[in-house]
Design a protein that fits this description.
By secondary structure, the chain is α+β, with helices and mostly antiparallel strands. The chain folds into 2 domains: about 120 residues, Roll (SH3 type barrels); about 290 residues, Fumarylacetoacetate hydrolase, domain 2 (Alpha-Beta Complex). Helices cover about 20% and strands about 25% of the residues. The longest helix is centred in the first third of the chain and has 15 residues. It binds calcium ion. The site of calcium ion has 6 residues, from loops.
Length: about 425
């Protein structure tokens, strides 16, 4: 067992029972404060942010053999590039600092702890390239049923390879960033010319993303067996989508402006190490996949996922409860497929799962599916209904894994839509 994952560990920092951030989590992020606006690396415990720059100054991270510049940095990229052995040592060191019996650290806590409510969390990773997959069989089946043939919903390639496309990295934003409703071309009526204007069918997509922490070099495919060594950690990912723009533009090369205006990530990268106890078997793959996509062991993760919509000035309504374990194609297969051509991964690249829908109507990961193309409006707790996302709505993604009394959470990915 990875030392820091021990469910028996307790911290001298009081952690609320329902917190996403017990001592067994220790995710990584980037923060700044009003008094020190320089972005720097942190972790989190309970309701507190832990400043790694200060810990390193106090010589508490010496054994990790990580340069100070990796902590005193506006992104996690340099830290992730140190490799898993070092970042695992770092996570274990952070665990020891925060463990209940560490009286010395407790005494000095005021030097490196900040109230989580009083800091600003920033985009954690400088994302070089971003790829989006389409790996939930329930989602692909729902979309295929709606737009093509209910009896033949999956395209012929779907069960043979993890379908994906290269997305836009520049518009990936951290939780809390307001999202301007995109404008673009749509074709509301089949027999009339296209029109220009704000998207009227704005949607979220519930996804998880994984961040690359190791490079393979051009021409060197990554096997499913090696893949986990390249995955630093996971984040929540809302792949905002303009359905009306998408419908008109996507043939023949796939989504373009419908997806490139914004994607919202959670501020915390939860390490693959922290998720180790939550491994679970994925769905059976039939027909059998080609040898380069075959894998051994449990490669899916049991992470509960939730989406809520909070209209302006009203209470939120949970519109979806899904789970990351439903993915048909797992991350090691996605990475093996992505690189089998020789494509090189770079530290900070982000690969997203695709919309994560479960088998039941209340587990669908987009409004497109939840409202079934707008034919089944969703009742909101505060009155009114939604088919898609309205101006003033805040969309909140949450994710957490729970076992043996330990809850490893991702925090939230929050985005408010403002009229464009
Ligand atoms: Ca997507």
């Amino acid at each position: 067992m990875i030392k820091a994952n021990n469910p028996a560990l307790k911290s001298w920092v009081e952690v609320p029972a329902d917190s996403d951030f017990p001592i067994q989590n220790l995710p990584f992020g980037i923060f700044r404060t009003e008094s020190n606006p320089r972005p720097r690396v942190c972790t989190r415990i309970g309701d507190f942010i832990v400043d790694l720059v200060v810990l390193d100054h106090m010589s508490l991270l010496e054994d990790c053999d990580i340069p100070h510049s990796a902590y005193d940095n506006e992104f996690l990229n340099e830290l992730m590039a140190q490799g898993k052995e070092k970042t695992r040592t770092l996570r274990n060191a952070l665990s020891e600092i925060l463990q209940k019996d560490n009286k010395e650290a407790e005494k000095n806590g005021w030097h490196f702890l900040h109230d989580a409510d009083k800091v600003e969390m920033l985009l954690p990773v400088r994302v070089g390239d971003y790829t989006d997959f389409y790996s939930s069989i329930e989602h692909a089946t729902n979309v295929g049923t709606m737009f093509r043939d209910p009896n033949n919903a999956l395209l012929p390639n779907w069960k043979h390879l993890p379908v994906g496309y290269h997305g836009r990295a520049s518009s990936i934003v951290v939780s809390g960033t307001e999202i301007k409703r995109p404008h673009g071309q749509t074709k509301p009526k089949d027999d009339e010319p296209p029109v220009f204007g704000p998207s009227r069918l704005l949607d979220f997509e519930l996804e998880m993303g994984f961040v690359i922490g190791k490079e393979n070099g051009l021409g060197n495919p990554i096997s499913t067996e090696e893949a986990e060594d390249y995955i630093f950690g996971l984040i929540l990912f809302n792949d905002w989508s303009a359905r009306d723009i998408q419908k008109w533009e996507y043939i023949p090369l796939g989504p373009f402006l419908a997806k490139n205006f914004a994607s919202t990530v959670s501020p915390w990268v939860v390490t693959l190490d922290a998720l180790e106890p939550f491994r679970t078997a994925g769905p059976e793959q039939e027909p059998e996949v080609l040898p380069y996509l075959q894998y051994k062991g449990k490669k899916n993760y049991d992470v509960s996922l939730q989406v809520a919509i909070k209209p302006e000035g009203a209470e939120e309504t949970v519109v979806c409860n899904s789970n990351f374990k439903y993915m048909y194609w797992n991350m090691t297969q996605q990475l093996a497929h992505h690189s089998v051509s020789g494509c090189n991964m770079r530290v900070g690249d982000l690969l997203a799962s695709g919309t994560i829908s479960g088998p039941t109507e209340d587990s669908y990961g987009s409004m497109l599916e939840i409202s079934w193309r707008g034919t089944k409006p969703v009742k909101m707790n505060g009155g009114g209904e939604r088919k898609f996302i309205a101006d003033g709505d805040t969309v909140i993604l949450r994710g957490w894994a729970e076992k043996d009394g330990v809850r490893i959470g991702f925090g939230e990915s929050v985005g408010k839509i403002v009229g464009g």
